[in-house]
Each structure stands twice: as structure tokens, then as C-alpha cells.
Batch of 2 targets.
Target 1
Amino acid sequence: MEKCVICWVYGMVQGVGFRYFTQQEAGRLGLHGYAKNLDDGSVEVVACGEDERVEKLLTWLKSGGPRSARVDKVLSEPHQPEKAWSNFSIRY
């Protein structure tokens, strides 16, 4: 079953390759969506794909993501994107 979530990742997640590593992990899981830096220092992640694979990405994010980052908290909720994503990209 297809599932989409939007989440906000807080901590030391900008300037440490967080979006790049999230893109790599999402690609490995076959997800589509994006990772984007926000002005408050957090990273927004939209991930869509098979329910189990989306949950694996959420678990990876909540467990700290890449070693270069420090994740303090992850908030997530179901999401209905306005457009369909064909891959997982880094947004600027």
C-alpha cells in the first residue's frame, strides 16, 4: 500500500550532509519525495512509497540518520502531496 509522510527533523542536521544521506537511504528503499533545509535549522522530509519502506526511513531518521548528524527529534504526519514525485531529490 502506498503511503506518504511529511516529517521535520530537528538537531544538528544542516551542514553535515543530512539531505544527501537521506536521499541515498530513501533511494536504497525505493522511495520518492524530497529533503529540504528550513530556515529554523531543521530539515523537512517528504517520503512516499510502500508503507513498510516509508516506516524503515522513519526509523532510520529517528535513530539519528547519518553519523555526521545529531537528531534531537523527528515529528511526522500523513501527507497528501500536491504532485507525484518520480524520485527522491534534494530541494533548495
Target 2
Amino acid sequence: MSNVIDRLDNKEDLELAKAAQRCIVSALDHSRAINISIVEEGVERIEDAPLLKLPPKVLRLFSDLLGAMAQGKAVTIVPKELDVTTQEAAMFLNVSRPYLIRLLDEGKIAFHKVGTHRRIRFEDVVEYKETRRKSAQSALQALVDQAQELDMGY
């Protein structure tokens, strides 16, 4: 389904990720940088290093990835147009597969069939998860507001 980059677990790797992110962010802030030099250990002159040309969007993606990894987070890269199975979608949403099937049957998440198997666009699964997160956040805020109106002490 995706490529998972596990957490960086040693301090040296975390520091390298932080430094690389700062370097990329700095380059993007000061120009429309598209070049990165790859300098291997032992190379005497930077002019001899291969030059990698990348669009600024890709550099921003690298920066975001490095930032997340520097914070000790695992990172998953998933193609936007990916179709997932019901089991994969259920695992991503942290719900049971039968519950996910019910959501599909109720029309809460769009799906299509490949033969007799349901397939869900990963983008739709992410959208459903974000909608649920926003709904939960809104409900929590309403409870907080109500508690303050009733002077409940928190």
C-alpha cells in the first residue's frame, strides 16, 4: 500500500535530519532553489559533486519529511490515486472491517467494485478521517463552551 519510513531512533540521525531540513528551508526561503549537491565523504571539491535538480515542491516535501522524522515520527508515503482494500482502509481508520463495510453500504465513504471486491480510493478514506476529526473537535469545543457558560470550574 505504501512506503513506510520508520522513526529515526538514534540522536545522530535525528540531528542530521534537523540540519538537512534547516538547510532546505533556508534555501527555499531565499530563492526558488531547485538544485541540491550530493557530496560524498572524501570528495575534495564541491564542484566535483553531482548536482540534483528538483522542483521546489519536491524540496518542500523533503523538508516536511525531514521535519517529521527529526521529531521522531514515522512517515508513510502513499500515492494520491491509490485504491485500498477494505482491510487496509479499516486499519488506517482504526476500525473493524465489518464497521467499515457498514460505512460503505451507508454511503458514508465512496467505493467501487473490482469483480466482487470493494476498493476505496485512499483519498476518500483520508477525507472521511479528516471529516470525523473535525466533527469530534467541534463537539469537544461545544462541550468546553457549555462548561464555561455553566461556570463548571474548567
